[in-house]
Amino acid sequence: NAGVMQNPRHLVRRRGQEARLRCSPMKGHSHVYWYRQLPEEGLKFMVYLQKENIIDESGMPKERFSAEFPKEGPSILRIQQVVRGDSAAYFCASSPLVQTNSNQPQHFGDGTRLSIL
Amino acid sequence: AQSVTQPDIHITVSEGASLELRCNYSYGATPYLFWYVQSPGQGLQLLLKYFSGDTLVQGIKGFEAEFKRSQSSFNLRKPSVHWSDAAEYFCAVGFSGGYNKLIFGAGTRLAVHP
């Protein structure tokens, strides 16, 4: 049973280019979360999505960042016109349902390391 | 605002010694609590979780953690550390009011001396 799959594992972009990060949740999971980890820091929540819906994007920068989770296919985190400060590890997590009354925690992928030249 | 504090940035222990990693949270109600471990270049692996019930929870790899409501703490312990335990450990809090957006501490990096 495959876990959360993220690709690419490493991505290098030049300033001003676009970065697309993909996340396929675990089988049966319909909730996806994106987190960003800056060097020497913990993970910071960015956005929470269900299929075709953005539920909470309170952690997303106001500009250049967007996320989607289409009916078919992986979730995509898109960063337009990247800058050096976007260099970080981006992690995706998934869960099967809202965890209010559940004991199912989030399962994390191995992340995408984004480097901006 | 909700927050998680891990007071120790780096900890070094000798192999075979006991370990305790501290975690304190700030939240008005009973949270969901997690400990994750991250090896270099890898993702996060769940060690254990607390949702309700027994405040002493057992996890994988011989780890345990105790929820203490009066101290707003969820410290991670292991009686005898192995060299393979060297990694970064993150405490995280989720909230019972809805979906589980996690708030992470800054992490504690554990080094193990032979």
Task: Give a structural overview.
- The complex is a heterodimer of chains A (117) and B (114).
- Chain A has 117 residues and is mainly β.
- Helix content of chain A is 0%, strand content 48%.
- Chain A is globular.
- Chain B has strands at 3-5, 10-14, 19-21, 24-26, 32-38, 44-50, 56-58, 64-68, 73-78, 87-94, 103-104, 108-113.
- In chain B, 0% of the residues lie in helices and 51% in strands.
- The chains are: A mainly beta (117), B mainly beta (114).
- At the A-B interface, strand 4, strand 5, strand 9 and strand 10 of A face strand 5, strand 6, strand 10 and strand 11 of B.
Keywords:
heterodimer, A: 117 residues, mainly beta, 7-stranded mixed β-sheet, 4-stranded antiparallel β-sheet, 0% helix, globular, B: 114 residues, 6-stranded mixed β-sheet, 12 strands
Helix content of chain B: under 10%
Largest interface, counted by CB within 8 Å of the partner chain's CB:
A-B, 28 and 28 residues
Instruction: Assess the beta-strand content of chain A as a share of residues.
Output: over 45%
For the termini of chain A, the CA-CA separation is 36 Å
Radius of gyration of chain B: 14 Å
Structural class per helix/strand content of chain B? mainly beta
The oligomeric state of the chains shown is: heterodimer
* Spans of at least 5 consecutive residues with low confidence of chain A: none
Structural category of chain A: mainly beta
Helix fraction of chain A? under 10%
Mean pLDDT of chain A: 91
Q: List the secondary-structure elements of chain B in sequence, H or E.
A: EEEEEEEEEEEE
Shape of chain B: globular
What order do the helices and strands of chain A follow? EEEEEEEEEEE
- Biggest sheet statistics of chain A: 7 strands, mixed
Spans of chain B of at least 5 consecutive residues whose pLDDT stays below 50 are: none
Could you report the average pLDDT of chain B, rounded to the nearest whole number? 91
Radius of gyration of chain A: 14 Å
What coarse outline of chain A follows from CA principal-axis ratios?
Answer: globular
- Terminal residue distance of chain B: 41 Å
Strand element count of chain A: 11
